[in-house]
Amino acid sequence: MKKRLVAKRFNALNLCFIISGISLSTGESVKSISADTFVDSIGVQTHWRFPNVYFNNYTGLKAKLAESGIRHLRDFAHPITYDRANDLYNSLGIKTYILVERRKSGPGRQPLDSTQIDEALNEIKTYALNVTFSLEASNEYDLSHGSDTDWVNNIRNFSITLYTKAEADEMLRNLPVIGPSLTSLKAYKAVGNLDRYIDYVNLHMYQGSYWPGMNGLDQNGSYSITWYLNELAPFQSPSGKRVQATETGYHNYIPHDGVSEEADGKYTVRGLAEFFRYGVYRTSKYELVNQGQPGQEGVFGLLRNDLSEKPSFQAVKNLISILNDKGPIFEPDTLNYTLNGSMDNVRQILFQKRTDDFYLIVWMEVPSWNMTIKIDLYPPPQEIVLTLQDNKIISGATLYAFNNTADVNTFNLTIRDNQVTFYATDKLSIK
After folding, report:
1. Residue among 227, 230, 155 nearest 198 (CA)
2. Backbone angles phi, psi at 333, to 5 degrees
3. Distance CA 91, CA 109 (A)
4. Of 54, 98, 233, 287, whose CB is crowded by the most CB atoms within 10 A?
5. How far apart are CA 63 and CA 313, in angstroms?
6. 221 pLDDT tier (thresholds 50, 70, 90)
7. Is the dihedral of CA 54, 297, 280, 103 positive or negative?
8. How far is Cα 332 from Cα 35, in angstroms, rounded to an integer?
């Protein structure tokens, strides 16, 4: 079937991406990316076994997951997790990252127990094999090791044993194994090289109340994406294996590095796009719903404790709805175009769907929250002109513009001389 060389449609998102670091103002041809690849990179953390809103409101949370379009969850190996993972897969096609963590019995936080890995893997094979997307070693053990004075050797041994046993098992060997998550440069240095025993590096890429694309790189930790990728990841994988951000996100507890729900909505989807732009394989937002406890840990959710939707939920749902494109693998085309105008801090990513339509995500990577006086910021929009090259014709241009509360307004853009003019803002826009 001959592909259309004209009548390409542009769908713009208030999110501007630089593809592979190419500045599109030069008019170079840009290789587009399958839109569904981005959608498939989005996940969210759940805690089905927790005796709170997760355990008590499963039916409502399942309905919200269906509405969101999210395809991947992250949760701990546990019978309740297996039950709900099976139901979610059978009814919604959602798969789960299983976090394997077994500890010695006793009061308080006991050390990891590698002798229980066989039991955990047998549970997964018996109850959750078809719904498990990958396995993951222990969670933030540098913080949660309790009285374990030999925690570095224990987390190394646990991770190595998990990988070795899964690789040797015919039923599990095709499941990728993600390394253990840690929380500091010091911890990544101490645990060191696990290259032989992981398929993906694990990073918890929290950025405090900074905006997702903030610059900064220092040995003390600056929350920047480049600091996580350049300083932490190489300790776990010197060969440079791909990264999964198994936790990231913003919370709404303002007194302790929180941001408003409005800024959270902007930062959440911009963060998903920024991580994707830097090559992160999958990003899991922490977490699905507020846990309803005091302090920051209780307000990380996409949903409030009563299951009402925050702007971050709306933003993720709308982003997935626009770019969703399930289907067989295809080879995306290149597109030769220029972006001119006020390009300071503008990001962009070019996607394509199986319909041949191109979707350009554009946004300004600037602060939307004042960390000092704790108020929302509204940076002025920047006018951008898109010009299509190579004698191809823009037959239609639709703008999907996210507003401050993550609702989407749709506009048909005027086409003049094979150009469209639009505004980049601190919110996603899709063209």
Report:
1. 155
2. -85, 170
3. 36
4. 98
5. 13
6. low
7. negative
8. 9
The residues that bridge with 301 in the sheet, in sequence order, are none
Nearest-5° Cα angle at 253, 15 to 76: 80
What end-to-end distance do the CA atoms of the chain give, in Å? Answer: 26
pLDDT at 217: 65
- DSSP designation for 231: I
For CA atoms 405, 15, 40, 251, give the dihedral sign. Answer: negative
Q: For residue range 12-33, what is the model confidence (pLDDT) as tens digits?
A: 333 322 222 223 333 568 999 9
Nearest CA to 138 among 91, 111, 99? Answer: 99
Whether cis (ω within 30° of 0) applies to the bond prior to 287 is: yes
Residue 197: CB atoms within 10 Å: 20
Q: How far apart are CA 309 and CA 302, in angstroms?
A: 7
Q: What is the DSSP string of 68-103?
A: HT--EEEEES-HHHHHHHHHHHHHH--EEEEE---B
CB-based contact 225:274 (threshold 8 Å): yes
Q: Record the pTM.
A: 0.93
How distant, in Å, are the alpha carbons of 48, 84, 162, 175, 186 from that of 98? 12, 12, 12, 10, 26
The confidence band for 252, taking pLDDT boundaries of 50, 70 and 90, is very high
Look at residue 145 in the predicted model and tell me its pLDDT: 97
In the chain, the domains with their CATH numbers are 8-35+331-430 (no CATH), 38-323 (3.20.20.80)
From the number of C-beta atoms within 10 Å of its C-beta (0-12, 13-18, 19+), residue 295 rates as: exposed
Residues 180, 158: Cα–Cα separation, whole Å: 9
Quote the pLDDT of residue 29: 84
The two tokens of residue 213 are 């694309």
Distance CA 154, CA 167 (A): 20
Dig out the tokens for 344 from the structure: 């300071």
For residue 77, what pLDDT band results from cuts at 50, 70 and 90? very high
Question: Would the pLDDT of 355 be above 70?
Answer: yes
How large a percentage of the chain has pLDDT more than 90?
A: 87
pLDDT in tens, 144-174: 999 999 999 999 999 999 999 999 999 999 9
- What's the gap between Cα 338 and its chain centre? 28
CB 227 within 8 A of CB 265: no
* 3-state secondary structure at position 221: coil
Q: How far is CA 322 from the centre of its chain?
A: 17
